[in-house]
């Protein structure tokens, strides 16, 4: 059973994770120019980003466990090669009533509100880098709905929260949730439970089980790069084999350091942050593993 955190401890955890992320080279993806490599030296045309769609609901224990225990840690490490689509709706039902849709959620009205808040957050903050940390923060809190405004204030201080609440309680939120209902109902195969994971456009029981247990190596194995050129300005002073090792891949193991940072706070790190085994070889095509 996932142990939810108090607000004070949660703030500390989020700050630690984001500081580690920002300090150790998790750059935002940049547009590709005409050459096969971006100007920062990262591969541009060598591989498509790994796609992950998560169909979930805000108060589902299993959804919260996956978001906090697998998805967020993997995204922190590999977000530059991932496209994450979050679809808050899950096992809800809708019916048309006049000029609006009425939703019934599996875990009650509060879950419907949580779904609406998340849908509106994604609408106003469409980039993964902006909304994924807030939704992680919500799902890791004891009460995701109550924590929503505090998570947004911490992680997106320029966001107008009143606008988000207006969206959730108004026509826009109603339309966004109906769109999520349509996306969920259109799944092939049809979803039978949540969390429901679509990985690179496909869902099978094998994919679901692998993602639930060890998402990080799954993303690593799915992402293939033909080659990578490191410009002179980005080269580290040490060679590894026949490769120049860039600074942002020469760092010590990020999973281990994040786990060590969480231990003094008495917070159990997500499973993938408690071992280096899963990350071995993830960046082997660069000549060095993180």
From TrEMBL:
InterPro entries xref list: Interferon-induced_GILT
Assigned GO CC terms: extracellular region; lysosome
Assigned EC number: 1.8.-.-
One Pfam family it belongs to: GILT
Entry's transmembrane regions: none
GO biological process: immune system process
Superkingdom, taxonomy of origin: Eukaryota
Keywords, ordered alphabetically: Disulfide bond, Glycoprotein, Immunity, Lysosome, Oxidoreductase, Redox-active center, Secreted, Signal
Predominant location category: secreted
PANTHER family associated with the record: GAMMA-INTERFERON INDUCIBLE LYSOSOMAL THIOL REDUCTASE GILT, GAMMA-INTERFERON-INDUCIBLE LYSOSOMAL THIOL REDUCTASE
Self-association state and partner proteins as the record states: Dimer; disulfide-linked.
Protein name: Gamma-interferon-inducible lysosomal thiol reductase
């Amino acid at each position: 059973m996932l142990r939810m955190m108090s607000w004070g401890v949660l703030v500390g955890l989020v700050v630690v994770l984001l500081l580690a992320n920002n300090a150790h080279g998790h750059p935002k993806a940049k547009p590709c120019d005409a050459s096969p490599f971006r100007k920062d030296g990262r591969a541009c045309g060598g591989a498509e980003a790994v796609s992950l769609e998560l169909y979930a609901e805000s108060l589902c224990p299993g959804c919260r466990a996956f978001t906090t225990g697998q998805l967020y840690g993997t995204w922190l490490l590999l977000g530059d090669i991932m496209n994450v689509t979050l679809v808050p709706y899950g096992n809800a039902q809708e019916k048309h009533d006049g000029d609006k849709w009425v939703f019934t959620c599996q875990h009650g009205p509060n879950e419907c509100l949580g779904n609406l808040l998340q849908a509106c957050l994604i609408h106003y903050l469409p980039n993964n880098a902006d909304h994924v940390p807030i939704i992680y923060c919500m799902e890791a809190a004891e009460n995701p709905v109550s924590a929503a405004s505090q998570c947004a204030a911490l992680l997106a201080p320029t966001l107008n929260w009143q606008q988000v609440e207006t969206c959730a309680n108004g026509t826009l939120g109603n339309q966004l949730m109906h769109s999520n209902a349509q996306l969920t109902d259109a799944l092939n195969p049809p979803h039978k439970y949540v969390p429901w994971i679509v990985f690179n456009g496909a869902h099978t029981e094998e994919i679901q089980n692998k993602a639930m247990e060890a998402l990080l190596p799954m993303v690593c194995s799915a992402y293939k790069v033909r080659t990578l050129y490191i410009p002179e300005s980005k080269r580290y002073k040490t060679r590894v084999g026949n490769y120049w090792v860039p600074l942002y891949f020469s760092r010590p193991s990020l999973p281990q350091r994040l786990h060590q940072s969480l231990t003094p706070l008495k917070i159990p790190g997500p499973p993938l942050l408690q071992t280096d085994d899963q990350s071995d070889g993830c960046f082997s095509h660069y000549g060095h593993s993180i």
